[in-house]
Write a structure and sequence with these properties.
By secondary structure, the chain is an alpha+beta fold. The chain has two domains: 56 residues; 198 residues, Extracellular Endonuclease, Chain A (3-Layer(aba) Sandwich), CATH 3.40.570.10. Helix content is 32%, strand content 18%. It is built from six helices and ten strands; from the N terminus they run H-H-H-E-H-E-E-E-H-E-H-E-E-E-E-E. The strands form three sheets. The protein has a six-stranded antiparallel β-sheet with strand order 1-8-7-6-3-2. Strands 4-5 form a two-stranded antiparallel ribbon.
Length: 271
């Protein structure tokens, strides 16, 4: 606060020395006040920096203590459009799994159906003991979203030449899960046999000759409110050998050469 002299004070100094002494004291008071203000500002900035750092560390810790997400969940807009290849590699063919996933995911985990009756991702920590030894039973009673079955002789390589299969997200041969509606999506014969099967068989062969575990996740991709999945994201990583035996991250397209699919409904027609 600035010191102002009254007219009486101004005209009653005993000497110029007293006048100068008064103003020197006033200048010192102002300096001390300014130093105090600067220190207070620095203290407030320090407290703010500490709070922000604490929040950052908390967020980082929360991220480290959480399950990873697939690209389908994280950024579906980054998914490549189908250009004629059965599949494309994602993230340098490396899964998105984290250390938290490896230490906390156990058994089989399936997502609930959404409001349109569509399947979500399935995640499982596989080992050889989970592989079935009995024959597979019928799954004809399950009709996943987008199930509009048609026959296409001379186009679909099966007998009868049905367009669609009930495709397991986690292959039956890996866990024995069969008529589980949370594990079945509508997929073309081509998608099932030429797209997903080669990757599933590589995991089957690995488990068949190893006591190791494989962390495995399959995430179907539905665009907007479409009932037929456009593709699935497949991730797999062998745990004990740090991915030496199994390591892939691919996007497999739900297509059938020669057939045009309506992903909104599941209906189809010849091209």
């Amino acid at each position: 606060m600035e010191v102002r002299l009254t007219a009486y004070q101004y005209h009653n100094w005993d000497s110029k020395r007293e006048y100068d002494k008064f103003w020197r004291k006033d200048v010192k008071r102002k300096k001390r006040r300014n130093v105090g203000i600067v220190l207070l500002i620095l203290l407030l900035f320090g407290m703010l920096a500490f709070f922000l750092l604490k929040q950052f560390i908390s967020v980082q810790q929360k991220n480290e203590d959480a399950f990873s997400e697939s690209i389908v969940d994280l950024s579906p807009e980054s998914i490549p459009e189908y250009t004629g290849k059965d599949y494309v590699e994602l993230n340098g063919n490396k899964p998105n799994f984290t250390e938290y996933d490896f230490s906390h995911i156990t058994g089989e985990n399936y997502s609930d159906l959404d409001r349109l009756g569509r399947r979500g991702k399935a995640t499982v920590m596989l080992d050889r003991s989970m592989m079935p030894t009995e024959e597979r039973s019928s799954i004809g009673q399950i009709k996943p979203s987008g199930w509009v079955q048609e026959k296409y002789p001379e186009i679909v390589d099966s007998e009868p030449p049905y367009l669609y299969n009930r495709c397991h997200l986690i292959a039956y041969a890996l866990t024995g899960q069969n008529a589980n509606e949370l594990n079945l999506i509508t997929g073309t014969r081509y998608f099932n046999m030429e797209g997903m099967l080669p990757f599933e068989e590589s995991v089957m062969r690995y488990l068949d000759k190893s006591d190791n575990h494989v962390l495995y996740r399959v995430s179907p991709y539905f665009k907007d409110d479409e009932l037929l999945a456009r593709s699935v994201e497949m991730e797999a990583y062998s745990v004990e050998d740090n991915g030496e035996g199994i390591c892939f991250h691919v996007f497999v397209y739900n297509v059938q050469p020669g057939i045009e699919l309506d992903y909104k409904t599941g209906e189809s027609r010849k091209k």
